[in-house]
Task: inverse folding
């Protein structure tokens, strides 16, 4: 354990301020950290007095002391690197280094932000070759940030030059700032047709195909026992990406898988580099939650494929709580965390935020660091947050009860842009509203489904023979399966099984488009 760190992150014995009046008095004086540097506010064209005051004020030694007195263990992530360049951001980084020393001196952990865009007006002056690192869209143009911040270009995650430069940034974060947590932002991909189509991405696509398929599989998939020189799909008004529902073309399927692999491989490369220098550092990426659209097709994000790879992610884009009598929640993200072992951090100030994060979320433990998904950045004292912080051990290493597992099989989710997502969201919403004990599983959990009573396949159109065999064993051992729509009507390549159907093995007849309950007893008699 580091000299400054008396308590690990999430340590249930760590004291925190419980005097309500004193807590509120201190809280009103604190300037809470921001991940946005002052130069960025100016460059963006905002730099309000409030933004300027926050950016300057949170780093003062007195402010750090107040955060520690309040009981904060890890302040919200601090600015560090945004993409202007290590030389031009150096004066700001030096102030972050001084701030980090104060944070550690007060017994707290340090979290820093690493941005994923390049600021063309200054970064290219510092690193001229970086102009060639830019993602190239379908028309060969650079892929820019949103909100008309057009001077911010996205780099290609497969570009070796960009990866090498990012490791220089990480050297500063680990060796100089001595960060205990590093958070990557904006490294997910953009909507079509803004996928990168540079030479590195085309090579990655072709190399991935060679790794995934044997020549025999290649013949079955593409028609020729030879690896294809695949090119990125060319979308158009006649073939618009937003009109695509079921993805049956192997070219587009492999393009989706290439995008997912790109994001995963970038993160693994960066995380392994950080941990080779400081194993106790937590490394996370902003992949956002489990939402009602095809995240793989849109952003190169497949939550199941990230399982046991990513340390943590954050809640971004919404504030959980009560609004007009309804509740806003990322409960799917938390449910998913128990399968993926990706802790969900942030947003625990209100009672709803604290309750959903601690009761629903998975607490990943990193040796020498502690439990992720803790209450270490909590700034509000109310009955719920006080109870949770007083009883953190109740939430550590406790298995969650889930009788029903909703299978979000990756080919079914990643090769369908509408119908599957529409149906599965409604099914999960029903389970949540009816207060049934349920969870989310992915392909990586196929060998461990015996702990559930029911596996649900709501419109899971694609299903492999391996999954069918596993479900067969599952039901023979007393488990049950719920299926609806066109569940298992296609194999993992989204090829139809017509005229037969996968579920004929249990039903004894052709599958009907109704909600079905399958329960096979040991004797082999079916109930429908």
Result:
């Amino acid at each position: 354990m580091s000299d400054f760190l008396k308590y690990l992150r999430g340590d249930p014995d760590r004291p925190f301020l419980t005097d309500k009046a004193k807590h509120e008095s201190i809280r009103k004086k604190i300037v809470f950290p921001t991940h946005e540097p002052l130069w960025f506010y100016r460059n963006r064209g905002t730099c309000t007095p409030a933004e300027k005051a926050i950016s300057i004020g949170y780093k003062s030694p007195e402010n750090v002391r107040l955060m520690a007195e309040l009981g904060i263990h890890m302040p919200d992530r601090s600015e560090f690197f945004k993409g202007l360049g290590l030389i031009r951001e150096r004066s700001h980084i030096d102030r972050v280094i001084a701030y980090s020393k104060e944070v550690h001196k007060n017994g707290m952990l340090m979290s820093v932000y690493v941005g994923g865009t390049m600021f063309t007006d200054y970064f290219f002056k510092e690193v001229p070759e970086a102009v060639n690192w830019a993602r190239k869209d379908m028309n060969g143009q650079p892929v820019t940030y949103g909100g008309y911040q057009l001077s911010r270009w996205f780099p290609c995650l497969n570009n070796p030059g960009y990866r090498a430069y990012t490791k220089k940034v990480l050297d500063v974060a680990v060796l100089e700032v001595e960060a205990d947590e590093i958070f990557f932002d904006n490294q997910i991909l953009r909507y079509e047709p803004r996928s990168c189509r540079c030479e590195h991405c085309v090579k990655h696509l072709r190399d991935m195909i060679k790794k995934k398929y044997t020549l025999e599989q290649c013949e079955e998939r593409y028609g020729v026992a030879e690896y294809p020189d695949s090119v990125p799909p060319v979308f158009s008004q006649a073939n618009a990406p937003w009109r695509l529902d079921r993805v049956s073309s192997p070219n587009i399927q492999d393009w989706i898988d290439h995008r997912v692999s790109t994001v995963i491989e970038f993160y693994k490369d960066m995380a392994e580099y950080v941990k080779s220098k400081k194993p106790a550092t937590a490394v996370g990426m902003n992949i956002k939650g489990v939402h009602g659209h095809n995240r793989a097709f849109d952003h190169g994000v497949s939550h199941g494929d990230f399982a046991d790879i990513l340390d943590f992610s954050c809640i971004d884009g919404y504030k959980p709580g009560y609004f007009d009598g309804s509740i806003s929640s990322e409960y799917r993200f938390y449910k998913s965390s128990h399968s993926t072992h990706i802790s969900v951090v942030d947003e625990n100030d209100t009672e709803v935020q604290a309750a959903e994060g601690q009761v629903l979320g998975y607490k990943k433990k990193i040796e020498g660091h502690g439990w992720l998904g803790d209450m270490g950045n909590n700034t509000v004292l109310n009955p719920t947050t006080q109870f949770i912080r007083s009883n953190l051990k109740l939430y550590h290493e406790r298995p969650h009860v889930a009788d029903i597992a909703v299978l979000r099989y990756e080919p079914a989710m990643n090769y369908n842009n509408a119908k599957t997502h529409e149906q599965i969201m409604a099914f999960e919403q029903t389970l949540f509203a009816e207060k049934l004990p349920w969870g989310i599983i992915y392909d990586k959990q196929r060998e461990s489904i015996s702990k559930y009573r029911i596996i649900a396949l709501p419109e899971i159109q694609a299903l492999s023979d391996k999954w069918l065999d596993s479900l067969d064993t599952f039901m023979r051992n007393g488990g049950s399966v719920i299926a609806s729509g066109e569940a298992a009507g296609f194999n993992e390549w989204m090829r139809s099984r017509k005229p037969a159907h996968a579920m004929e093995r249990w039903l004894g007849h052709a599958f009907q488009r109704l909600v079905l309950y399958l329960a096979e007893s040991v004797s082999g008699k079916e109930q429908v």
Notes: The chain has 18 helices and 18 strands. The chain has two domains: 20-120+149-190+268-286+296-395, 404-527.
